[in-house]
């Protein structure tokens, strides 16, 4: 048991380090990057790693490290906005469904709506929104945010139903305490740990979704840096310049791994 806890603790620490590196790169890109991530230098195109360009340059001569840093800012900003939107909508609806279900008044309408949303994955929503509004960062935020709502509803509902059967909550209900006060005083503080875990999982899924949508051309348009768009642009050069795909692919994999490890470690710590 102690060994298992240590292992998950180490995994959580490693995940925290990976996430911190991604966040630091994103914040640093706001004030500094080694080169202008949008500046093309045809004379230095497809250069490998060197002292001047640690990660090499792309097909237009742009510094890959600078674009990775700039892409971190864009990817994390999109993921943060999408996850925040999912949580702000999904958690209250899940708490409502859980409180109504525990009181024997159903809550089936909310869960039916969540099941309906599951039929519309982020890719399908992004295609529809792109057809209506055109490709943009906001399309990705809206599509990923809507697709993430059912997960928060389900997690919040299950946690709420467990809390609602506690003696102190039953006593508060018998005393006539308003439902919204019970939600704020008892439900939300007790389900906060599992919501935190869901946020970590949702962040990892949002990063993958953003990268996938950008890879398909449904995200932020060129020439702005996006890890998924960088992977898309690297396809014609995989045989001759594999570093074009290596660095953005590694950035996506390590950041997603970081959020997953952080979520798993937080879950084990809460148990």
Write a brief structural summary:
With 271 residues, the chain is mostly helical. The protein has helices at 2-28, 64-102, 108-118, 122-133, 137-164, 167-174, 179-215, 227-234, 243-270.
Task: Explain what the structure shows.
- This protein has a domain at 74-256: Orthogonal Bundle (MetI-like fold), CATH 1.10.3720.
- The radius of gyration is 22 Å and the shape is elongated.
- The protein has helices spanning 2-28, 64-102, 108-118, 122-133, 137-164, 167-174, 179-215, 227-234, 243-270.
- Helices cover 73% and strands 0% of the residues.
- The protein has 271 residues and is mainly α.
- The chain contains nine helices and no strands.
N-to-C SSE string, H for helix and E for strand: HHHHHHHHH
What proportion of the residues is helical, as a percent range? over 70%
Work out the number of β strands. 0
Unreliable stretches (pLDDT < 50, length at least 5) are none
The CATH superfamily title of the domain at 74-256 = MetI-like
Q: In whole angstroms, how far apart are the ends? A: 13 Å
The level-1 CATH class of the domain at 74-256: Mainly Alpha
Structural class label: mainly alpha
Whole-angstrom Rg: 22 Å
pLDDT averaged residue by residue: 88
CATH topology type of the domain at 74-256? MetI-like fold
Q: Regarding quaternary structure, how should these chains be classified?
A: single chain
Membrane topology: Multi-pass membrane protein
Protein name: Peptide ABC transporter permease
Family: Belongs to the binding-protein-dependent transport system permease family.
Domain ABC transmembrane type-1: 72-263
């Amino acid at each position: 048991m102690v060994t298992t806890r240590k292992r998950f603790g180490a995994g959580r620490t490693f995940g925290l380090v990976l996430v911190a590196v991604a966040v630091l790169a994103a914040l640093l890109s706001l004030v500094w990057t080694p080169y202008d991530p949008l500046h093309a230098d045809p004379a230095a195109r497809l250069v490998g790693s060197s002292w001047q360009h640690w990660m090499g340059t792309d097909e237009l001569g742009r510094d890959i490290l600078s674009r990775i840093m700039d892409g971190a800012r864009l990817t994390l900003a999109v993921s943060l906005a999408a996850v925040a939107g999912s949580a702000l909508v999904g958690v209250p609806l899940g708490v409502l469904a859980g409180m109504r279900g525990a009181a024997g008044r159903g809550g089936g309408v909310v869960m039916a709506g969540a099941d309906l949303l599951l039929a519309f994955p982020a890719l399908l929503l992004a295609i529809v929104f792109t057809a209506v509004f055109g490709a943009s960062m906001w399309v990705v935020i809206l599509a990923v945010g809507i697709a993430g709502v059912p997960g928060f509803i389900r997690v919040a509902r299950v946690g709420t139903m467990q809390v609602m059967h506690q003696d102190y909550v039953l006593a508060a209900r018998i005393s006539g305490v308003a439902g919204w006060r019970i939600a704020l005083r008892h439900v939300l503080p007790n389900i906060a740990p599992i919501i935190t875990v869901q946020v970590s999982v949702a962040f990892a899924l949002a990063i993958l979704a953003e990268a996938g949508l950008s890879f398909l051309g449904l995200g932020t348009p060129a020439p702005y840096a996006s890890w998924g768009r960088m992977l898309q642009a690297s396809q014609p050069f995989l045989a001759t310049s594999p570093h074009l795909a290596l660095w953005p692919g590694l950035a996506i994999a390590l950041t997603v791994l970081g959020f997953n490890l952080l979520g798993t470690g937080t879950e084990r710590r809460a148990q």
